[in-house]
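User: Show me a protein chain along with its predicted structure.
Assistant: Here is one chain, sequence first, then structure tokens.
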Amino acid sequence: MPVRQLPETVVNRIAAGEVVERPASVVKELVENAIDAGAGRIDVFTDGGGRRRIGVTDDGGGMTRGDLALAVDRHATSKLDDEDLLGIRTLGFRGEALPSIGAVAKLVITTRHAGEPHAWSLNVEGGRKSAIAPAALTQGTRVEVGDLFFATPARLKFLKTDRTEAEAIREVVRRLAMARPDIAFTVAGEGRAPATWTAALPGAAGRLTRLGDILGADFRGSAIAARAERDGVIVEGFAAAPSLTRANALGQYLFVNGRPVRDKLILGAVRAAYSDYLPRDRHPVVALFVTTEPQEVDANVHPAKTEVRFRNAGLVRALIVHALKDALAREGRRTAANSDGAVLTAFRPATAPHPANWDWRQSPASPIGARPWSDGATALAEPGQAAFDVGAPSADVRFNAPPAVDLIDRPLGAARTQIHETYIVSQTRDGLIVVDQHAAHERIVYEKLKAALERDGVQRQILLIPDIVELDEATVEKLIDRTRELEKFGLAIESFGPGAVAVREAPSLLGKTNAAALLRDLAEHMAEWDEALPLERRLMHVAATMACHGSVRAGRILKPEEMNALLRDMEATPNSGQCNHGRPTYVELKLADIEKLFGRR
């Protein structure tokens, strides 16, 4: 087959196949053009999931008649001052969006520049341009796209339902609105209520306001400011406390020089930063903004500009991890159960009787010493009265002495009792706190292991009689292959035949522990390790597993001084709001909240 030059219409349709993947791609390109035009307000309207109609209106600078004529030609752009493709300071620069859209749809552009006496309009249908004609528009640009993919009907077969495509459009606008809180956005159509985000004030406060409007009030309430800077690269934004998680990573947003991007870099960095706080099946919600010189990032990797490539990807990853870790360490005692109304909801009765209709005789907690009501007839017989005798309290209250004033004023208060041999109840100046003793001590031991490793290594204790642990051969091989890594934490093991391991030394910090259970858990975690997982993260996995086995177990009775010692250790330990698996270590009820539960407020 001979080589031939393709017609321009075919070339445009091929380019459209890369740039215009679905209706959301069209909206993305048009909104980015509006942002680059200096718009302060952008309105988006869609119908039929964007198939039938897409309209984007802005109040930006607009185009002159001559610019409008060139705007729909391929490789014509106003976003490059010269031929330097590394100095990109705008969102779009390829000059392919408008001609690609016009090649597969019916495109109408109406625009007015401040230097023009009136607006101008241009139609493009299936790649064919009409003559430019005068039009009416007060300011900015209005772009209307109708019958998307009418020129390439095969592409219509790959689109999803109108509802799905409409949601994809909203997600695109949401991401761009998160990147530019200084611009007002409106998304309307599809028979749904319009979504409007007003322009926010500049700075971190305005950014958090916009993120809260889009990601929800729960994010705004749990957001922690994060920032790190080095070698001209700035990473800043907000990360949700470990209390706010999702089942997938879709709640993680990355913006590079104002451009929303999807990058595997952030997924690995965020997981590394949150590894000490969350279970493996939960994902945090974060919005991070990376600012760097344009020459340090390649935005020309993907035709749709949804991916970027950093010149120094390791630096960006390190800054993301550093910023998130510092932010989480500052809010180390913010727990999952304290961040919202979950505690109050759990305590509140399912049905609350109206105070005027309340009858204490119907309450399971009738006033102590109260006698059954009688209307003058026969009183309750003795056997009936016995039903009100509930007996002694079921809780194990071992001490009731007034707590020391200095302890009550501490953040976690003074221990008052232990219930079910698992939970410590402490009293503060303005409320009470319930602590999960195992989860709390697990975090304390874990942080001590990490500190010891960084300082001078973990101290070991030699066992007088080595523990022989029988395991299957495959598990033994996994453990023996990691002996050097385990030795860093004071766990010295060696092979003891084909199906056994001898434990000769153990970390002194753990005290007496179940070697067999510990080794089995370590082997299970090692089976999930990727060879690319850094050594540091592997060691932290080992430390977390050891901390779980070396901490105070549920069911152990503690003395009052032991409970208070645990509370003081929690106050001095970073990240004590969660255990190593992401569960809360304590919950707090303010006195005002307790009074609300009982109708005193």
